[in-house]
Write a structure and sequence with these properties.
Helix content: over 70%
Number of domains: 1
CATH superfamily: MetI-like
Low-confidence stretches: none
Strand content: under 5%
CATH topology: MetI-like fold
CATH architecture: Orthogonal Bundle
Number of strands: 0
Length: 234
């Protein structure tokens, strides 16, 4: 218990003292996880919508693959992305290995199946006749799809939060493709693991506490947006 309280005290001191390294790590964490989540939303929600509205041979297999991807170990994703981005890999010419860009790609790969799977579930839960009714009332296919997205907004926002939670807390992929380089690719999770390996448990607890605070604040903001849209339509 003493170590925990010391860690919390250290976290408060680091924040109040304006420790530049801690602030830089925190900002990079928000940037990498935020962009990774944003990419997953741009890919996952349209994919979930398409799967919910279309019937085609092999649909169940594709859905099962997405559901499998929701539980894909981050370290496996890190290995896959590393092989693609390595100097002699298919995308080696990009030269983004051990950069925040590689971390964003890895986190987007992790979050996309989560967002897609939960988006599919949210939209599939709507009345299947709703889209036909909208089209019969004169809505274009794009307008009908947009209205379906708005109708399923509660579940879709939950998908976004789940996607963000899945990437902001992961370590394996970030370590493999980012390298935990000080001042360049070190984020709160990788910094915490490093401090634990060095035996600096107070610093590790402090970084963990900061990560929890950052995650909670962002989830609160997303929850507020989710609930505010609900109140507007009541």
């Amino acid at each position: 218990m003493d170590s925990i309280w010391q860690g919390l005290s250290e976290a408060v001191k680091l924040l109040l003292a304006g420790d530049q390294e801690v602030y830089a790590i925190t900002i990079l964490t928000i940037q990498v996880s935020g962009l990774g989540t944003m990419i997953s939303v741009l890919l996952g929600i349209p994919l979930g919508l398409w799967l919910a509205l279309k019937n085609f041979p092999g649909k169940k297999i594709l859905v099962s693959v997405i559901n499998f991807g929701m539980g894909l170990p981050p370290v496996v994703v890190g290995l896959f992305v590393s092989l693609l981005l390595w100097r002699y890999g298919p995308l080696g010419m990009l030269q983004i290995m051990y950069t925040p860009y590689a971390m964003i790609i890895a986190q987007a790969v992790i979050a996309t199946p989560i967002v897609a799977g939960l988006s599919f579930a949210a939209i599939s839960g709507l009345n299947p006749k709703l889209r036909l009714q909208l089209l019969s009332l004169g809505a274009t296919p794009f307008q009908a799809n947009w209205l379906l997205v708005r109708e399923a907004r509660m579940g879709l926002m939950a998908a976004v939060m789940a996607g963000f939670g899945g990437v902001v807390s992961e370590v394996g992929a970030s370590m493999m493709v980012g390298g935990n380089i000080k001042g360049e690719t070190r984020v709160l999770t990788t910094a915490t693991v490093m401090e634990v390996s060095k035996g600096n448990f107070d610093a590790a607890i402090a970084l963990s506490f900061i990560l929890l605070v950052v995650t909670y604040v962002i989830v609160v903001i997303l929850t507020y947006l989710q609930q505010s849209e609900k109140r507007e339509l009541v």
